[in-house]
Design brief:
Order of helices and strands: EEHEHEHEHEEHEHHEEHHH
CATH class of the largest domain: Alpha Beta
Helix content: 40-55%
Distance between the termini: 64 Å
Strand content: 5-15%
Largest sheet: 8 strands, mixed
Number of strands: 10
Strand order of the largest sheet: 1-9-6-8-5-2-3-4
Length: 304
């Protein structure tokens, strides 16, 4: 289920962990950290082995920051490492390039407190917007969102936006591996790249979690150059949707087979227990091959 949230200035009483993936974001971090709500419980900077002063800047501006180093490559792995390290009640995921406003975090927290399992940012609801997205990317996003909505019965308006918050107890639903070693090749597992945002939204839907969309405004990156490409990123998102759909179908089949096998074992155990019961055997005779005596035989045995 997907609904839309209203805005709120603050929601006290919950420990909020903010996970910020970084890779050479020393110039952007001052803006991002300055916009954090004062009462967040912990700030976790997950770094992809930056070669600039990202970590020094984070420690200088936020002495209580928790630094976590990535175990593999890619934004998805950074998020997986941050989620695994988070100890708060709620996890908020915020980009380090200044495109998302951490000052909006209370809106996401309120959506969770109001009953959502997952608060999903959207640029395309009333109160949201973007100064960065192109018309081509927006059109592709809407088309891909519609495809996911058809597949999973959701009502997403923005599939590819990465500003989200959720209850920490749902981390396992996302199925992100933070500890496996890097595989040969590009050193990434499935979900380690920028496809992670689409993957998370699909897995949340597949698990049946209650989703509330929260209007959010996306700003242009403050410093540095974006690596986004409308065509290649669109193909990657489409591949992610198809791969996750296949994964979901295979998991459903495995669950059905496991349930059928378990039921057969229960039935076999019950019939074996009846065979061993003298009173039952005297009444109906042995259950050879689990084919019980016929009603005629039962009547004859009763008459005798």
């Amino acid at each position: 289920m997907t609904v839309q949230a209203s805005s709120s200035s603050s929601v006290p009483g919950y420990r909020v962990s903010v996970v910020i993936p970084t890779l050479n974001e020393a110039r952007n971090l001052p803006h991002v950290l300055a916009r954090l709500p004062l009462d967040v419980y912990e700030v976790i900077v997950v770094d992809g082995h930056s070669v600039d002063d990202t970590l020094a800047v984070a420690r200088r501006l936020r002495p209580d920051v928790r630094i976590v180093m990535q175990t593999r490559k890619g934004k998805g792995n950074a998020l997986a490492c941050g989620f695994a390290a988070a100890t708060g009640d709620i996890i908020a995921m915020v980009d380090a390039d200044g495109s998302a406003d951490p000052g909006e975090i209370p809106r996401f927290v309120k959506a969770l407190v109001d009953g959502a399992d997952f608060a999903k940012g959207t640029r395309f609801a009333s109160g949201g917007g973007s100064s960065d997205i192109t018309r081509l990317r927006a059109t592709g996003n809407r088309a891909l969102s519609a495809f996911v909505n058809i597949c999973y019965g959701t009502r997403y308006t923005d599939l590819c936006y990465g500003f989200n918050a959720f209850w920490q107890r749902h981390v396992s639903v996302l199925g992100l591996d933070a500890t496996a070693p890097a595989p040969p090749g590009d050193g990434r597992l499935w979900g380690d790249g920028f496809e992670v945002e689409t993957l998370i939204h699909i897995r949340v839907a597949d698990a049946g979690l209650a989703v509330t969309e929260v209007p959010s405004f996306e700003h242009s990156r403050i410093h540095g150059v974006s690596n986004l490409s409308a065509f290649s990123d669109g193909l990657r998102v489409l591949r992610t949707i198809l791969a996750e759909r296949r994964r979901s179908s295979q998991a459903a089949r495995r669950r059905a087979i496991a349930a059928s096998t378990e039921l057969s074992e229960i039935e076999a155990g019950a019939l074996g227990a009846l065979d061993a019961d003298p009173a039952w055997s005297a009444l109906v005779g042995p259950a050879v091959g689990h084919q019980w005596a016929s009603p005629e035989n039962l009547a004859q045995g009763t008459a005798e």
